[in-house]
Amino acid sequence: MLHKTLKDFPKNFFWGASTSAYQVEGAWDKDGKGPSVIDIAPVVPGTTDFKVTSDHYHHYKEDVKLFAELGLKAYRFSIAWTRIFPHGTGEINPLGVAFYNNLINELKAHNIEPIVTIYHFDLPYALQQKGGWSNRATVDAFAFYCETLFELYGDRVKYWLTINEQNMMILHGDAIGTKSVSGENPVKDLYQQNHHMLLAQAKAMKACHEILPHAKIGPAPNISAIYPASSKPEDVLAASNCSSIRNWLYLDMAVYGRYNNIAWSFLEERNATPDIEEGDMEIMASAKPDFIAFNYYSTQTVAASAGDASDVGSTGDQQIVVGEIGVYKGASNPNLGKNDFGWEIDPVGFRNTLREIYERYALPLIVTENGLGAFDKVEADGSINDDYRINYLQAHIDQIQLAITDGVEVFGFCPWSAIDLVSTHQGCSKRYGFIHVNRDEFDLKDMKRSKKKSFFWYNALIAKNGAK
Ligand code: BG6
Q1: Domain 14-463 - what CATH class?
Q2: What are the structural domain ranges in the chain?
Q3: Distance between CA 380 and CA 368 in Å, rounded?
Q4: Predicted TM-score of the model (pTM)
Q5: Which of 207, 289, 301, 450 is deepest in the core (most CB within 10 A)?
Q6: Does the beta carbon of 425 sit less than 6 angstroms from any atom of ligand 1?
Q7: Where along the chain is the active site annotated (predicted)?
């Protein structure tokens, strides 16, 4: 649809930015923090580990001051479960509690709205040793952790996100470093874990509404519109399969409390439907999100399955389709360019995605990640001219405005990432931030913060509430 007049961004739009605890904080074993699965996972050769990252734990005051200078209205960050409960449950760690109290207070003092992700990939290792998400006890540990956070920080935190990219942990847990499955039917084990996470999320949403009646909570999956590789009906069917398995399985459960029928049929085909205990579906049906948060980097394109091993590509990650035998096969989209890491760039697909989610669920949307990973170059005078990042973000922001004009309710945009941090599996040379951190893959240097060109651009854009 071509619009003659564009609607403005809403008055109190959350122009924000995002990070996650394990990718930015460092201090992986400081002040009583317990290990998470990320701390224990093998490091991808040639890339740094997650022990120090951007050392935000020790730099948070300076960082929040920079976020305020950037003009952020909101900051989306995650709480490291093992700072609060080093063993996942049981004894609380007062120093970990204090860190987030300080961070939240600092944000509030600078008029930045904290948006808290409860769990961003870093499951406590102590829980993993007892079976992780395969063990139903982890659902209760998560519910208890959530209730604790609501009690501790709910007087200042109004916006909560349950689980970051549960769909990517299920589909690309290998790349992210979170996958651990066992048993005779690993697919069943995986989707049993998925069921437990969905149940845990439902419990979190219910507890949030009970404990904090004025707070708002929602899921935070990675959602991409899925294109068929051609107009062949078989390709269109494959796209529908992929969309149900990648996107709607997660949001249908979060919003409607039911399993998506196509995803369920896929699980039946693999003898992998999860065991559902009495009462589970009632809990899922009675838990309601207030909004949908989602991360968007690109769209995906798929073709009809060939019905054999050729459906499965050799590698994949959050934005690169692996393929499922008999269901769909990954394809590339000849109409799109790619970033340095092979991720397709599709701003118009962002509008498609926003429209599709809103039309399906009619809940307010907030974008909790979007951004460009790139190899930034520091010039001799110290400047970083990341025009490619500015172009990427501006093109995506333009599409949000078009989606708003289409009638989609969007209340915030939190690009990835506020500050440079360590990527999930491609090290810290893959940079995303508005703020540069002076370190490289293996040399920690002085961690000095400096403003990239995109910092000044985003600051000016926020000041005009996105108007040109
Ligand atoms: C999302 C994750 O999948 O994408 C983030 O929520 C991640 O944790 C981001 O960092 C970018 O991906 P990557 O693999 O480049 O770090």
Answers
A1: alpha beta
A2: 14-463
A3: 34
A4: 0.98
A5: 301
A6: yes
A7: 369
